[in-house]
Hints:
Elements: H1 3-15, E1 19-20, H2 22-30, H3 32-40, H4 49-66, H5 72-82, H6 91-114, E2 118-130, E3 133-144, E4 150-156, H7 164-169, H8 171-184, E5 190-195, E6 200-204, H9 208-226, H10 247-251
Parallel strand pairs: 1-3, 4-5
Antiparallel strand pairs: 2-3, 3-4, 5-6
Helix pairs in contact: 2-3, 4-5, 4-6, 5-6, 8-9
Amino acid sequence: MKLKYWFRNFWQGLVGRAELSYSKVNAYQLCPWKYKLIYVDGWRTPPTPQISLGLTIHRTIEAYHQRQSKLLEELLEIYDEKWVNEGFDHPQETVGFYERGRKMLVAFFNKMATRDARTVYFEQDFEFPLQRHKVRGIIDCIDQHPDGSYELIDYKTHAEVWSQEKVDSDLQLTIYSLGCWMALKIRPKRYSYYFLSHDRIISTTRTAEQEASALQLLKDVGQKIVRREFTADTRHCYYCDFRYKCHYAKLS
């Protein structure tokens, strides 16, 4: 185990505190052992074309906002600067994903040009305490509309467009809703996923009941992590990034 992970987990166990995020909770729910491999033992998820494209698009849009750029040419220049060239098997695959990302950004630029909202936060960190635990996250974007209402937007680069039902019940947006209020003191009127591959925005809301349920889930997962409950769940081994390295996957 890397030294920094050893110290972090020794401290967490000593004080009974876990640092939580949507990614960590999602990993734990999928397989507690996978959580351990990533966040306790320091295993890295191998790079893939999808991960590299996602990183590139997020970094591009962040830099575009930071530089207060206004031109499509500037956006595409930033895209070239931020390109993450990892995980591709051959040049043709690289070119295919590069062109896919370029189309996303052109559509993004055109859609943003038609919106009358003002971006007030981008790549915004949030952090709030939950009992002894700490909950953290990064929100892609928060826009403010002319009527004063806020809209939280998270960018998705994968090929699948989620159903309205999935967006309505998605845990990530609920945790971000909590972060908006408890850390930023903002109550967005809408929570939106922007599926860049399809240039489609699907919006939803969040209820007090959903937030209460998410808080309880965060508490439960935090306590299990502190107690080091890392039982392997082998139902998803076939799709796991570590299926060729994890001894549980080899036994399943």
